[in-house]
Amino acid sequence: MCLKGKTIGIAFTGSFCTYAKAFEQLAILAQTDAEIQTIFSNASQSFDSRFGKAEDFIKRAEEITQHPPILTIPDAEPIGPSGCLDLLVILPCTGNTIAKLANGITDSPVLMAAKAHLRNEKPLLLSVSTNDALGMNMKNIGLLMNTKNIYFVPFGQDNPAKKPNSMTARTDLLLPSIVAALNGRQYQPVIQ
Ligand SMILES: Cc1cc2nc3c(=O)[nH]c(=O)nc-3n(C[C@H](O)[C@H](O)[C@H](O)COP(=O)(O)O)c2cc1C
User: Fold this and answer.
1) Is 70 strand, coil or helix?
2) 123 in a domain, yes or no?
């Protein structure tokens, strides 16, 4: 897939169970011609869990992209004035980050990057992964779906029997979703 000349931000938030799939997609994206800049939320750069250690994820991101990740709000802020990204993907995007984004809160490097990037009227792509997508966060997802320049990696219920409010993105559809968002379109069908 030709993404030559494109610079893509990949922002990690704290849905740690999704990291295996997210890093798989990061490696695939790195094989395209795109430049990639990763960004880590406070949770994603500091919580160790059964899914791995935060410092190992940061190291892996740098190895794959050949760029040090952005880890602070001051380092994310220049994304606005420099206009350095063509597209920003939040992969994975937690319920916490969805709720804050929908309400204009900017208290993590990822939210700062999103705010700075949206100021430039460029596409923001969300790859949601949250247990409360059909619960407390449904209103926020609805609000973001109806917001200019925001797109979604197609998503659906991952375990309706045991986690009826949970929805996760089809990360395997990341690349076509990126291409669509770069062309100002939502990849369809968005609910799968
Ligand atoms: C092991 C573990 C797994 C988690 N998985 C998820 C998840 O899949 N989705 C989610 O929305 N939050 C999840 N969380 C909670 C978030 O990490 C937490 O809400 C955090 O404040 C998110 O901050 P961020 O959105 O700035 O990264 C998880 C937390 C832990 C410790």
Assistant:
1) strand
2) yes
The low-confidence residues of the chain, meaning pLDDT below 70, are 1
CA distance 11 to 18: 13
Distance from the CA of 130 to the center of ligand 1, in angstroms?
8
Residue nearest to atom 5 of ligand 1 (CA): 15
pTM recorded for the entire structure = 0.98
Question: For the chain, how many structural domains are there in total?
Answer: 1
Structural domain includes residue 103: yes
What pLDDT is recorded for position 2? 73
Q: Considering only CA atoms, which residue is closest to atom 4 of ligand 1? A: 15
Classify residue 86: in a domain, yes or no.
yes
Is 47 near ligand 1, meaning CB less than 6 Å away? Answer: yes
- Give the CATH number of the domain where residue 12 resides: 3.40.50.1950
Does residue 145 have its Cβ closer than 6 Å to ligand 1?
no
Amino acid at the residue 152:
F
16: domain range? 7-182
Does the CA dihedral 113-21-151-145 come out positive or negative?
A: negative
Examine residue 45 and state whether it is found in any structural domain, yes or no: yes
Contact 100, 136 (CB under 8 A): no
* 3-state DSSP assignment of residue 165: coil
Instruction: State the distance from the centre of ligand 1 to the C-alpha of 183, rounded, in angstroms.
Output: 31
